[in-house]
Amino acid sequence: MGTYIVGRIVQLLPVLVLISIIVFAIMHLLPGDPALLMLAGAEGGAIGPERLAELRQQMGLNEPLLTQYWNFLSGALTGDLGNSLRHREPVLDMILDRLGSTMELAVAGIACSLAIGVPLGIVASVRQGGWIDAFCMTLSYLGASVPVYWLALMLVFIFAFNLAWFPSSGGGSLDRLVLPALSLGLINAGLIARLVRSSMIEVLREDYMRTGRAKGLPPRLLLWRHGIKNAMIPVVTMVGLQFGNMLAGTVVTETVFSRPGVGRMVVNAIIAKDYPLVQGSVLFLAVLYVLVNLAVDIAYAWLDPRIHYGR
Question: What are the distances in angstroms from CA 26 to CA 18, 209, 267, 273?
């Protein structure tokens, strides 16, 4: 197992380097000068060329792009993601300060997805071909088709403005987490429900399930002890991918609900052309995504003893 984990990490290093190159290139292709934006916001009025050149020199923007990228990459390898151009704070410290809010939202979103999607998929598979199956799958298609920003705005409009059940923005309390978690969870619950249904239908047709029914095992015992665990292997893959996507894709949700997370910080950094903050945040989230998928691979062996990670 240890050899497998080390091999996976070595294979993923080039992917992380490629991600850093793409993000670095995109940020420097965007129009606008971060030094000019900072001076315009801080001083206003006419900006002298001497002051602009001095600030660009202080920010290291006069160096060649290859030098700037190498400084970023070499620092990242040692755990130093640089300092924010706008806030003049270490990028890693800013990410860690906001990571808890993003992780909280991602975990709550996944929990919501599983709490809705898994029961829908199981019920649809057991009642395959009936009206219950059609109803559950219709709900799953609707959930998977709705854009997350539209759903988030509708949740705010209904439950925050009209009914006043939950706050519409902010973070730090459980009631402020409900609507963002629902906006993320409902979208992914449809995908999970369809995957659970198809996986459960295959498992219910297996020989060991027929044997269990022939021996007279209670249907509930057969379903929960032998059926669901074997049907969860593809679902684990989906949950791992969705959790990684939520960590990296909470930008819209955090922006709509004004949550102090990494996604909202990245949006503000892109607007301000804060190169180190954007590059460091994206690379940090990419590493988290890789680690989540590695944990999913390891979980396969626990779910299915037939899976072994040898040489």
Answer: 12, 53, 14, 11
* Cross-strand pairs, 83: 90
* Cα–Cα dist 286/295, whole Å: 14
Long-range CB pairs of 5-9 (<8 Å, 24+ gap) are 5/294, 5/298, 8/294, 8/297, 9/294
Segment holding 154, helix H or strand E:
helix 148-155
pLDDT digits (tens, 9 = 90+) for 53-102: 776 776 677 777 788 788 778 887 787 777 777 777 888 888 888 888 88
Long-range Cβ contact pairs of 222-228 (< 8 A, separation 24 or more): 223/122, 223/126, 227/200, 227/203, 228/122, 228/200
> Where do the structural domains in the chain lie, given as residue ranges?
2-91, 92-303
Q: Global pTM?
A: 0.71
CA distance 295 to 154: 35
Q: Is 181 within 8 Å of 109 (Cβ atoms)?
A: yes
Q: Do 37 and 272 meet the contact criterion of CB atoms below 8 Å apart?
A: yes
Distance, CA of 31 to chain centre: 28
CATH code for the structural domain at 92-303 = 1.10.3720.10
Backbone phi, then psi, for 80, in 5-degree steps?
A: -105, 110
Residue 64 φ then ψ, to 5°: -60, 155
- Secondary-structure breakdown of the chain: helix, strand, coil percentages, each rounded to the nearest 5: 75, 0, 20
Cα-trace Rg, the chain: 24
On the CB side of 250, CA atoms within 13 Å amount to 34
